[in-house]
Structure formats: C-alpha cells, structure tokens
Amino acid sequence: MGLFLVTFVVRVYFIPSISMTPTLRVGDLVLVDLLAYRLHPPRPGDVAVFMPPVPSGGIAFVKRVIGVPGDRIRIADGVVYRNGIPLDEPYERSRPRYRLSIRDYDLYVNGRPLDPRLADVPPRSFWRAPDRIPPGFYLVLGDDRNRSDDSHVWGFAQLGGRYAAGPLAGRPDPGFIGRAFLICWPPTHLRILTP
Fold it and tell me: Which end of the chain is more exposed for a tag (fewer CB within 10 A), N or C?
C-alpha cells in the first residue's frame, strides 16, 4: 500500500536551489500530490512541480503559480498585479527588481519581449487576447524573485502537449507533475504549504 501511494499518489522532492526561499530552503524535502492536477488545473498560489520549457537535465522545477490562462499579469515597482489587483505575497523574499507585462501577444521583461527561440512564448495563434495568458499556459515565479530562474527568464510553463516555443519547441511537454503540499524534512521545517 505504501509503495502504491509513493508511486501514484505522492512523491518526495528534494529542493536543490534558493529560488523558493524563504518558503523552501536548499535541502528541504517536500511531499507532492501527483493527483492534484489530474483533478483540476494549477491554481494561483500553488507551489507546483513541473518540467520547465528549457533543458534541465530531466530535473523538475518547483515554483509558485502566479498567473493562469486568461489572467492579465504585470509587475511594476516591485509589485505583482493579477488582473489589475496587487497581490499580497507574504511568502516573497524580496520584491522583483524587474518589470514584466503581457501585451501585444508577448511577454515583456524590462520593456523587451522575450525571444521565442529562448523562451516558451507561443505564437499569436495560441492567444485569445493580446494581454492575457493563453490557454494551457501559466506564469510561474520563485519566491526569491530576483534569484529565480522562472517565467521572467524562460517564458510560460505549459499544462502539457508540445512546447510551443523556446529551445524545446515541438518536443513533448510532460507538463505539471503535481502540487507540493508539505515540507516533511528536516523536522524543524515541517509545515503545510498553503497558497
């Protein structure tokens, strides 16, 4: 029974980087619900595990879901806005020192569009509106905003299918693996992860 649960329902992931501090620290072990995104799509605030749209040597990334399909996202003066409303982000280590906006069917960082050869920003045919996240795409950021390799660097994470753009364009995208819900090690960090 335990093997079934660990194989099909939950999985343990090791946190190798500082990108999610202070929420997750290097060396933390987290439990990941493998069924969550089979039952519903990722939700804003989720700490999600997924395969990034850039070469990672098969290593999954852990980031916070900030924007979902249909959302308007903007970062200005260190504040993240979803659909025009500033987010209350007590988990954030430091305010982002970059500007980000979704406009003209593109993802702009510091006033420049991300290069679709290097970032997963789909072509115009994928979009329903020029200033909203396209269907099947998600904007994800690390809680340590200025030291995280995330959507402001490599574009959107995808729910599955094939990568629309970037260095892995056309290759199968395993999509989101699951939602991290518990820090289980070390015991001093034990806590439930909430959005």
Answer: N
